[in-house]
Amino acid sequence: MGVVQDMTATLVLVVAGVLAGMLNAVAGGGTFLSFPALVWLGVPPIMANATATLTAMPGYMGSAWAYRGDVSAEGTLRLRPIVAIAAAGGLVGAGLLLVTPGDAFVGIVPWLLLAATVLFAAGPRLLEAIRHRGSGDMGPVPSGLAIFLVSVYGGYFNGGLGIMLLAVLGLIGFTNLHGMNGLKNALSALLSVVSVATYAAAGLIAWNSALVLAVATTVGGVVGARYARRIRRTDLLRAGIVAVGITMTIIFFVA
Question: Where are its TM segments located (predicted)?
């Protein structure tokens, strides 16, 4: 019976990881699969959140490297202050997760998934509205505060982080979409490193599950990147991912 359970758990992680990697490579939203899969297998929600963040880290690093030539400073903040502020925010967010009681986090999770789903669904229109608004000039203090707050969120919970970072970068004056994507990926990688280091030090990583999920997510990312250019109806794909997010949100609300 134990062998069957182990095989089932491995199969669930492989399928969830491959699909999550493919979604992240094409449009994002892989967290809607990897996090619930870990919880469904019995990993405590806080540990599942930490483990899902770890398995997303290689994808962020690969994407950041691919965009490395496009990243440049825009707006009122230079790159070094942005990176430093993001690292500090990530540490605060990870620290908040460590002191959050398990029962309290279980109650927060549905709301986090709901927020991530709404952000993912509204992402294209939100970014379009920011682009129409033109370059922002919030000043260094408000810009730094915006980066800090979204980084705290990213250190606490990974879902919906990408679109939040893009929105904030647009608000503080970034206009080059390739540069925004590159910096978004770099900051996501940084926040993952900072968060995972904190989680690992606190013993919150389910390493056996993380290894399987990380390999599967990497494979899914390679496959997704290969076929991403062939997808013509990304609106239908995004609608499907939103449907998954809504379903997972409802399940966590009623569970």
Answer: 12-40, 46-67, 79-99, 105-127, 186-205, 236-254
Rg of the chain on CA atoms, in Å: 18
pTM across the whole model? 0.82
Looking up tokens 């899969």 gives 37
> Which 8-state DSSP code applies to residue 230?
G
The answer to whether the CB of 157 falls within 8 A of the CB of 112 is: yes
Grade residue 1 by pLDDT with cuts at 50, 70 and 90. Answer: very low
How many helices (DSSP H) and strands (DSSP E) are in the chain?
10, 0
Containing 57, the helix (H) or strand (E) segment is helix 45-66
Give dist(CA 202, CA 136) in Å, integer: 39
Over residues 37-78, the pLDDT tens digits come to: 999 999 999 999 999 989 888 877 777 787 778 777 777 788
